[in-house]
Predict the structure.
Amino acid sequence: MKQIPVKDLKPDSYCSDDLYLDEEYILLPPEVPVSSELINRLVRWGFLTVWSNGSLSDNPPGGILPVEEGEGGTGQEAPSLVVDAAEQKTLQAVREFFSDLVTFCEKTYSAFLNNQRLNPGTVADKAKEVITAVRLHQPFIFRIQEMDDPRRNYLIVHSAKTAILAAGLGLRLQIPQFKLVDLVTAALLHEIGMIRLPPQLYLSNRVLTPEEKRAITAHPVIAYKTLRSFGFPIPVCLAVLEHHEHMDGSGYPRGLKGDQISVAARIMGICSTYAALTAERPYRPPAEGHTSLLDMMKRAGKWYDEMLLRSLIFMLSLYPIGSYVMLQSGAKGLVVESNPENPRCPVVKILFDDRGHRLKDPILVRTDEGINTIRRALTQKEVEELLG
Ligand SMILES: [Fe+2]
C-alpha cells in the first residue's frame, strides 16, 4: 500500500480502493466519498497520512454504485445503500478487532494462570490499539451487547468489553494519552485475579458461603500484588485494586470513599458494571441496556461517581447504542448513535415500520421528545422474535 498525505484528501473525493488508517483499520470503502468531517477528525487526532492501494479521484469508481432507475427508483435510494455498505464494513472490522482483542485477553489471562510473567509493555501496546480502534470506530464499537461469545470465558470477554467502554469514556473526558493507556491497560486486566477461582463462583447467582465470598473479594488484591511484582505502573495496579470500591465507602477491598478512589478505578467500576449487566450469564438472560442504565442511576453518587455515570449515559445515550427500541409511531429500530444534546433522544435506524413490515432500506431518524419520541426499549424476547 502507498501513503497518501491527509492534506491531499478533499471533501467529496473518492479513493479507487479501500482507504486505510494503517495496515489494519479501514477508514472508507471505495464507494463512500471522503467527508470533511473525516478529514477534520484525522487532523484533530494528529494523523498525517492514510494508506491505500488505490488513488484519489473526484469521481466515484465506475460500476460500484447501484443506482436504481425506472419505476420506484428515484436515485435518492442510493445514499442509504451506500451508508449501509459502509456500516457493514465497519461492523465487520469491529467484530474482527473485538475477536482479536478477546484472543489477546485469553492468552494474557492463561499466562497469568500458568504463573508466567506478564510484560507491561505488551499490554500497554494492546491498550493503545484499543484506543485507536475506539477513536475510529465509535459509535459502532459501543454495540457491546452484540459481542457476547458463549464459547469463550465470560471474564475474558467481559474484560475486553470493559476496555472498549473505558477507552470511549476516557476519550470523551479528554484524559491525557498516557493516563488513558494506563486506564485501558487496567481495564484489560481488571478481572485477572478472578481467573484462578473456580468458574462456578462467578458464573452462578447462588448464595456464596463466607469462605467463597472471601475468595471473590480477594480478586482485586491478588491482581494488584501480582501486577506490581511484574512491574506494571502504579496507576494501573491501583485502578485494578479499587475497581469494586463505591463512592459511599460500601465497596471492597478497602472501603475507600469518594476522591480516595482513583478516577481510573471509578471509570472502570462503571464500565465493568454496565458490561456485566448487559451480558448473558448462565443463570439469566442479558439485561436490556436502558434498564441497566436506569438501575445504575439509582445508585449514582452512592456507588458510582455521578459525573462519570452521566458521561457514560451521554456517550451511549439513555437507550444505549446497540439497543432495539419502539418509537411512539409503533416503528421499531436499532439505536445507532447518541445525541450529544439529549441522551434521551439518540439516532435510531428504523428497521420495521409501524405495521411490522421490514424496510428494504432502513431509515435513520433523529428521535425527539415529540412525534419521533422513543416509547420504550424492546425486551430480549421481542428482539429475538423481531429478528427471527
Ligand atoms: Fe472484579
Remarks:
- The chain has three domains: 1-58, 85-316, 324-387.
- Residues 1-58 form one domain.
- The pocket of fe (ii) ion is lined by residues 190-191, 219, 243-244 (CB under 6 Å).
- The CA atoms of residues 200 and 206 lie 9 Å apart.
